Amino acid sequence: MQTFAVEVKGLTKKFGSFTALDNLNLNIALGTVYGLLGPNGAGKTTAIKILCGLLRPNGGEGYVLGKKVPNRSILPEIGYMPQETALYLDLTVHGNMALYGDLFGLSRSRIAERESELLDFVALQKWKDSLVSNLSGGMKHRVSLACSMIHEPKLLFLDEPTVGVDPELRAAFWEYFDLLKKKGVTIVLTTHYMDEAQHCDRIALLRQGQLLAEGTPGDVIKSAGATNLEEAFLALAKREDGRS
Amino acid sequence: MNIHRALAITRRIFRGLRRDRRTVALMFLAPIVAMCVFGLAFSGDVEDVKVVVVNLDAGFTHPELNVPVSFSQAIVSNFDKEVLKVDPVADVEEGVRLVREGSAYAVIIFPERFSESLYMKSQNPSYSGDTTIQVREDRSNVNVANAITKSVSDAILKTAQDVGQDLPMKVDAEDAIYGKGAKFMDFFVPGIMAFVVFMLTTLLTLISFVGERTSGNLERLQSTPLRESELVVGYAIAFSIIGMLQTVVLLVIGVAAFDIMIVGNIVLAFAVIALLAIVSLSLGILLSSLAKREAQAIQFFPLIVLPTFLLAGIFWPVEAIPGWLRPLSYAIPPSYAVDATRSVMLRGWGIGEIWIDIVALCGFAGAFLIVAILSLKRGRR
Q1: Which of A69, A99, A143 to mutate to test the interface with B (most CBs of B within 10 A)?
Q2: Domain containing B239: what range?
Q3: CA-nearest residue of chain A to B215?
Q4: Min Cα separation A54/chain B (Å)
Q5: CB-nearest partner of B12 from A49, A78, A99
Q6: Confidence of residue B9 (pLDDT cuts 50, 70, 90)
Q7: Which residues on chain B are in Cβ contact (under 8 Å) with A89?
Q8: The pLDDT of residue B179
């Protein structure tokens, strides 16, 4: 019985002389919300891209839903929301969602159903026929999130899903993630907002491609002797620097 | 290969175009403007060239007929009035001055006793009088100068005919095997069709794929079950349809405004253009992998436009290109499309005659498509 949605063993990725991921090991259980935290250049996005089959690792292995990546057979089961807007600005909200619905082989009526559900969730129902180029940054972000979920993936990779989203809607997002989790969906997300990471079941703190700490947010804070995640990160980073 | 996913890409291109009036305008107005401007400007004829004539010949009285005769005036009156705008001047110095100051392109000088010498020579070939018409041209513009020389030569021949001094030889090029009565536009339209489709398809896919790469859309597409080959085929379907629509527009205007000649099977010409569109879009995708931003992509424009413009046989035949450059003509795909569409439209050739062009285009299309797909996969390193 497969218990992990994602298993990462000694994953290493280099871009020229720059090491983006350095021997990363992670296990992400099915049906959890898992947060990858860390500053820019920590390797969060690189890890997600390898798991989605967009990049090949230089060393180590990644397994997604029990299959070694890259593997085309997992693609219908996963949803990926890139950090960039990654929408067609010359299409309407509907046009973008219909494109991804088509690519995942959904029927016309199923696309319409899913589109309606998801636009309710991201509160953009009345913008359905607007050109994406006319939407604000936060709205584009919400469309992007909706597009990555059109095919009801079992596993969602969300690269900074809450950037540029106002606090009220961000709270709504987290409620929705909880809802998805109850349906058995696994969510792997990256975030800059340390406070937000409290909502995750487990987190991994990354820095310079290496794992600083891993566990429930409470465990991580406790092991660093801190009172919140931000302090914990700074303390762990300092400890790591002292060691090397 | 899942055709539904490929068609989803095709659909998204057309959906995007429906909202993007500027690009649509570029796609359909640019060919029309290009055809009209080039067609009218390059129509191949030099007209209204100013020349001055110094006629030192006073004419003479024909000894047998006893009437005054001036061969020099006969020749001047036989100048093609469309080509030359003739002004008489009194002496050579004045004529040369006018050319020097740029008021005329040539001074045409008839020597003294020209008519009489000409007559005497016709009676006695060893007669030593001067019968040379001096044409002193401003050859800084070679095309104009050549037109003047030709016009003077033609007038001499015509005058000789008029006075019954016809050459015993004759050239008759009236009964053409292909393209009987063809004008410059008939030759030009097939060329401009191929040029416009090649250029716009390459540039639009280049820009559009740089956009796919930089916006993150390509990565999102690659995280879905869509294969790179399906993405490229989706584009190919869209752009071959667009290429054929552009061809329709050009042909309609060509027929309506320029009364161009179409003797062959027009469907075959469409097929050639669609094939060229596929070659072009693969080239655009390929080049897009070399550009990181749209601004970099724009630097490829001259690279695409110039060789095609100069070497593909659109304005002048490949035979007019120096021998050492000709291999380049055969190395660029539009050459084959120009040759094929021209052969179909003007010679009425069928697939049996143009198969070499079709094979060459299919070869380019196949090779470029494969490399384009590989270049997309390479992104996943």
Answers
A1: A99
A2: 3-42+183-378
A3: A86
A4: 5
A5: A99
A6: very high
A7: 215
A8: 86
Given a contact cutoff of 8 angstroms between Cβ atoms, the answer to whether B2 and A93 are in contact is no
Q: Do A86 and B220 touch (CB under 8 A)?
A: yes
What is the strand order of the sheet A67-68 is part of? A18-29, A4-15, A59-64, A67-68
Q: What is the pLDDT along chain A (244 residues), one digit of tens a residue?
A: 578 999 999 999 999 999 999 999 999 999 999 999 988 889 999 999 999 999 999 999 999 999 999 999 999 999 999 998 899 999 999 999 999 999 999 999 999 999 999 999 888 999 999 999 999 988 998 999 999 999 999 999 999 998 878 888 888 889 889 999 999 999 999 987 887 888 999 999 999 999 999 999 999 999 888 888 888 888 888 888 887 6
Q: B193 and B252 in contact (C-beta within 8 Å)? A: no
- Cis peptide preceding A70, ω within 30 of 0: yes
Q: Decide if B312 is inside a domain.
A: yes
Domains and CATH numbers, chain A: 4-87+154-243 (3.40.50.300)
Q: Do A54 and B219 touch (CB under 8 A)?
A: yes
Cα dihedral A52, A143, B228, A110 sign: positive
Q: Which pLDDT band, with edges at 50, 70 and 90, does B192 fall under?
A: confident
Instruction: Please give the ipTM for the structure prediction.
Output: 0.94
> Residue B22's closest chain A neighbor by CA?
A90
Residues from chain A that touch B15, judged by Cβ atoms under 8 A, are: 90-91, 95
Which chain B residues are within 8 Å of A161, Cβ to Cβ?
none
* Nearest residue on chain B to A103, alpha-carbon basis: B5
Looking at residues B246-269, what average pLDDT do you find?
89
Put simply, whether B21 touches A (Cβ < 8 Å) is no
Number of residues that this document lists for chain B = 381
CB pairs under 8 A between A and B: 84
Are residue B304 and residue B340 in the same domain, yes or no?
yes
Report DSSP state, residue B315: S
Q: How many CA atoms lie within 13 A of B263 on its CB side?
A: 14
Q: Which two tokens stand for residue B317?
A: 């035949």
Q: Is residue B310 part of a domain?
A: yes
Amino acid at A164: G
Give the DSSP H/E element, type plus range, for residue B354: helix B351-378
Residue B166 is predicted with a pLDDT of: 66
For B232-248, the pLDDT digits (tens) are: 999 999 998 998 899 89
Residue B230 resides in a domain: yes
Q: 3-state DSSP: chain B helix, strand, coil percent, rounded to 5? A: 65, 5, 30
Question: Which amino acid is located at B24 in the chain?
Answer: V
Residue B274 lies in a domain: yes
Q: In the 8-state DSSP scheme, what is residue B324?
A: G
Give me the DSSP letters along B42-72. TSS----EEEEEEE----EE-TTT--EE-HH
The per-residue pLDDT for B138 is: 92
Contact with chain A for residue B100, Cβ under 8 A:
no
Mean pLDDT of chain B: 89
Do residue B274 and residue B333 come from a single domain? yes
Q: Are strands A33-37 and A78-81 parallel, antiparallel or unpaired?
A: unpaired
For range B43-63, the mean pLDDT: 86
Q: How many domains does chain B divide into?
A: 2
Residues B249, B339 within the same domain:
yes
